[in-house]
Amino acid sequence: MICGRGLVRNGKTAAGKQRYRCLACGASRSGERPDVSLRAELDAFLGWLVGTGSQQGVASLGTARSFRRRTAWCWNITPQIPVTGEVHDQIQVDGIYVGSWCCLIAVAGDYVLGWQWCDTEKKAAWAALLARFPAPTVVITDGGSGIAAALSECWSETAVQRCLVHVQRNVRTYLTGRPRTEAGRALLRLGRTLTRITTATEAAAWLGGLNDWHQSYGQLVKARTYRNGNPIVPGWVRANQTWWYTHDRLRKAYRLLERLSQAGTLFTYLRTEFAGLEIASTTNRIEGGTNAQLRLLLRSHRGMSEEHRKRAIEWYLYLHSEQPMPPAKLIKAQHHQPPKPTTGTSTEDDPGPERYSSGLSAEEGLWTRKGWAGRT
Q1: Which residue of 222, 244, 301, 335 has the lowest C-beta tally within 10 Å?
Q2: CB–CB of 114/130 below 8 Å?
């Protein structure tokens, strides 16, 4: 089989078909050029994989069964985005789960910078992704598990902007959509105004409102309930726990806002030193522009194996990078010509002298009987 690299014309056959010879391996064949066939098969494969159509709709390769047979080798190609070393003003990072795998993604503007597969979001996985790129000016994140530790290790000088939409959702999760206390309703109203802040003056007023809330309801955050003499114990309290915070969910919501405001990660996009950079306050770009499209892609091709789903995500991210190479440039001989498995000759070890015989012996009374054996 010809490998298809460096083809030159080598005359014609008796039937008038063009003959080609490969400069790399020396093999020759007639008819259609193999590199053209592979390119067409890969283009048809990617048109189906990153689209929403069916395999039957790829008319250039015949039926759906013919399509799967002719493009089976395309699953062997693993695309990767080369690292350019460009320093970006802002980078958004997020993760999406695919079966038992998690894909960590980094985007800058409208382009994907890279991805990292892992089992779950953790410091080591985030560090492996962040270490590939120079530190940007600002990174926008939803505050997932392990990202803070990875940022302090890899991008210690980079300013952090927490996604305000995720902060709103976390506050609503703690307080529910209809809090029963006045303190909960006031804190929920404060959280809902986060995404409407566009100036530094409004941000200062919001921080003042959070401080006023603490002045009015701060005692509820510190209130405790003791087990002694209390017949009602919440289900989440441990058996050996002697006390717990009375308004635990209210405390968690306030502590989240307090911690982020003290860290200075709520209104990084409004800082004067970043004026003109148009720093985003949310991760909507990666959530809606990348993750949502990946979920639509997997939903359109539901039923694929986990490895094929991973490959589909890799191809989508690669094709949405800033300067992807033509897919045909990634084709190598080992992709469509996998090495044949070597069949080794198995040799049995010398059994040595016989220790336990399986034959019959007269001493044991297990010999083959002859004659009538007592029959009359």
Answers
A1: 222
A2: no
